[in-house]
Specification:
By secondary structure, this protein is mainly α. It has helices spanning about 15-40, 50-60, 60-85, 85-95, 95-110, 115-130.
Length: about 150
């Protein structure tokens, strides 16, 4: 006996899967890259100020160096994202990174996140969910591109 299913899943294209995988990679790299930077700078022996040498010395700290590398790779992943999806889709979806930043800040850096900030995080997440329900590409291929 075959059960009737009230819904039918639409086939998902390889491009859509690639877009969402790149988006997840970007979000993880940016969130953890910023976490590494924040953790590293909070554990520096000297405060970063206007003196450029302090910044250069701070880059030798392992967590700060890791954060910098992760953010550079995140930039490269964003370039790849922009090649497969619309800017009007990518930028709102990457705003989920602010949600991750608040969660990581709260649980890893023990930051106090006020109810007002959590409400703002919920609004950001709702906006990203709304954008995520739209097509990721409306322009198709650019003429002349391979």
């Amino acid at each position: 006996m075959r059960l009737a299913v009230p819904w039918k899943l639409a086939p998902v294209s390889t491009r859509t899967i690639r877009t969402y995988l790149l988006l997840l990679l970007f979000l993880a790299l940016r969130a953890f890259g910023n976490l590494c930077l924040a953790w590293g700078t909070k554990h520096l022996h000297e405060a970063l100020a206007a003196h450029p040498l302090a910044y250069l010395r701070s880059m030798a700290q392992p967590f700060i160096a890791l954060g910098i590398v992760m953010l550079i790779v995140a930039l490269l992943v964003r370039l790849a994202l922009l090649s497969v999806a619309d800017l009007s889709f990518i930028l709102p979806m990457t705003a989920i990174g602010y949600v991750l930043a608040a969660v990581l800040g709260r649980f890893f850096l023990h930051e106090a996140v006020s109810p007002r900030r959590w409400a703002a995080v919920a609004v950001i997440f709702a906006g990203a969910a709304l954008v995520g329900s739209t097509p990721h590409s409306t322009t198709g291929k650019i003429q002349g591109a391979k």
